[in-house]
Amino acid sequence: MKALFFTLTLMTFSLSHSQKYDCASKTKEYQEFLKTQDFNGSYQTWLEVSKKCPKESEIIYTDGINILQYKIDNAANPEDKEKLVRNLLSLYDQFYKNFPKSVPDYEVKKAMALYNNHIEVESEILSLLESGFSKAGSEVKDANAIFTYFRLCHEKYKAGDALYNANATLDRYALVNALLTNLQSSASANSNDYKTAQRAIDAMSKDLATCDNLEAYFEKNYTTNIDSAAWLTAALTNMTTKCGAKPVFFKMAERLYSLQVSSQSAYFMAIATLKQKKFEEAIKFYNQAAELETDNVKKAEIYYTLGTGLLANDLTKSKEALNKALLADPNMGRVYLFLAQQYANNANKCGKTEFEKKAIYTLAAQTVRKATAIEPKLKATVDKMAAEFEAKGVTSTDIAKEKMKGKTITIGCLINETISFPSK
After folding, report:
1. pTM (two decimals)
2. I need a surface site. Which of 27, 46, 310, 422 has the fewest CB within 10 A?
């Protein structure tokens, strides 16, 4: 009897295991269809896998999003389409439940699934966006989602919705503007999308996000957030472009700098002191911002701003800053455009003879042409500038007359460059 019971137990155990669902092989099965873009062929098996193997792999969800989106795009009627979109939303919920770190902004993705597929449920979309940005705003990378969120909020503000008064809408403006600024500095592929979204938001909110309104808004919220470096950074980012001259900007910049000395806080101090016409302090802070910056492209931008701005009237110091910009980013061709123009501007001052004056224009032409080699998109500007300089530069007749074929001359003064002449 015991032997019979053991045999039956063993058979039951073996049968249950032989019938166990093979998640890995079933995943490969539906993925074979995906290799040929056969989304319909993959659907049923994928659906089984998603139900029976919810924790097997993130791939089940990323594949599922593509499969469902294909079926949505090819739905027979609006009712079927909305049902499929709702399935997609449920899939995002399941994705977040099982792999929360992979989709922290799942509510934003759900909102955009409704929005992009033209499911006309604006209140639901806005509710999902509000919750999504509140919980995981810093994780959102979709420029269209950021723009759509603010557009819907701004429409509520314009319609006089009490929940979206000026102060509440400025909360959203500060959030999205800081987010887009940070994304532009950290991204490359989508940088233009973020710039476009930011320009559109600024244009939309010009009646709301005036310097006076921003000043009042940040002044009102300053005391509450005085020890929050994140809040101060976002606030200063929002005011940098248009409102750096406001007293609250200087107050917030000083406070942030006292909390943490970094490239960003030094940069804000540079802008604040520049607006106050404290030029020596501004130069100091620009240099500090560049020195502390670890991103070479950003470092080059700071040095370029310094060399073409505050130091532009001191060619020696300007060149020093611009050379540092080139050292950080050798592909910054516009440095040569500025240097060439500076040489040309100082031709009469630094040239002791007519030949030397002409030679400086030749140097300017040679310098500006360096830009094309590293930034081909500047070719039209370079060609125009070079032609103007060459028209004022030395000719072969001038070189022969001065007996300078194959020789060089060094121009001191502010330029400090050597100019070589052809031997033929």
Report:
1. 0.74
2. 422
